[in-house]
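User: Here's a chain of 89 residues. Predict its fold as C-alpha cells.
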Amino acid sequence: MAIHIPIEDWIDLHTFSPKEISSLLEDYLEECQKKGFKEVRIIHGKGKGVQRTIVHSLLEKNPLVESYRIAPDDQGGWGATLVYLKKGK
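Assistant: Prediction complete.
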C-alpha cells in the first residue's frame, strides 16, 4: 500500500515502523531533490538511538546525500538529523 505524504523540508519518522524507513527515506529524498530542496530535516527521535542509527546508515549509502549532521538544539538536537542534498540534474 502506497503512503502519500506531503513533501516538505522535514519529515517526522515517529509514525512509521522501522521496516518502512528504508523505502520511505529513499523516496522522500528523491522527491525533495526534485523540488530543489538543498537541506532537509529528518526527525527520528532521541530514545535509544535505534532509528537514528538506521537513518544514518541509509544516508551513508544514498547517492543523493552530500552530507548530514545532528541538528542544532533549536531544530531537535540529537533527535533529528539535517541532511544536505546534492544538486539535482
